[in-house]
Amino acid sequence: MPEMVAGTMGWGWLQTAGVLQSHPSARARTDGAPGESAQEKGWGGEALSKVPEVTLLFWIVKILATTLGETGGDALSMSLNLGYALSTVILLVPFFVLVGFQIKAKRFHSWLYWAVIVGTTLAGTTMADFADRSLGIGYPGGASILFACVIGSLLVWKWSVGTVSVDNIVTTRAEIFYWVTILFSNTLGTALGDWTSEGTGFAGGIYLFFGLIAVVAGLYFFTKVSRTLLFWAAFILTRPLGANMGDFLTKPHDQQGLNLSRFVASGVIAAVMVLLLIVFPQKAGEHPGSSE
């Protein structure tokens, strides 16, 4: 794969508590891609960033969103017994509506951004389950296909825009690739979480993916590996972590779960997300893309 433009992954959370607040700058650089309208730029001619800075808060809320996607998706497809196909159709409708509003927005809206993220995790859960179980291709087959989709979307994004740096989400074209890649990555993460849990159990899967995320953090601190590559690696790994956490909370005791109601678990997780976003309001910022 071509080298990706480097950026910041938000591991600066080891600094003071102030890191929970977004960077004061609410603007990001643009590559000057054609098709930008004057409305997409600030007073100084800089394109306005529509994504949050990657900080500790970003990763905490992202993990909560992936866990909510697992419990919420399963509540629809399993608890309500609607099946994976119908649940996927139902969940994709609000996702497309929300992502449409997100793309049309001229600036960053924290609540809208995270609503779209949750939409990708909910739809990603039922999409992965449909591919793995209903289509009969199994977890290895589903994960392989979805991994190819993620790589394919990144390569086409790179070819079309010139970079997959998420600091560059200032044009409609880049933002469409951004959300397509996120939808594929969250769907892939669900398949990976379900696949690994068969061998490790849900608690073991949680430890496994926390460990892999720690490895990515180590690569960030002690190597010069592309920061954008590390960002997408961490972004994908948080999804199977959330899948295992969601299953651990809701699966019955004989499956090593806590047997909590999927609806109650989803409500509590959503409430914690809302509380965090109220207490620590986010602003637009780098995500990632600063030159190394």
What is the rounded Rg?
18 Å
Low-pLDDT stretches are 1-8, 11-47, 287-292
Strand content: under 5%
Number of domains: 1
Characterize the structure shown:
By secondary structure, the chain is mostly helical. It is globular, with a radius of gyration of 18 Å. About 65% of the residues lie in helices and about 0% in strands. It has one domain.
Short description:
It is built from seven helices and no strands. It has 292 residues and is mostly helical.
Characteristics:
292 residues; mainly alpha; 0% strand; disordered N terminus; disordered C terminus
Summarize the SSE layout with pairings:
Layout: H1 56-79, H2 84-104, H3 110-134, H4 138-161, H5 172-222, H6 227-250, H7 262-279
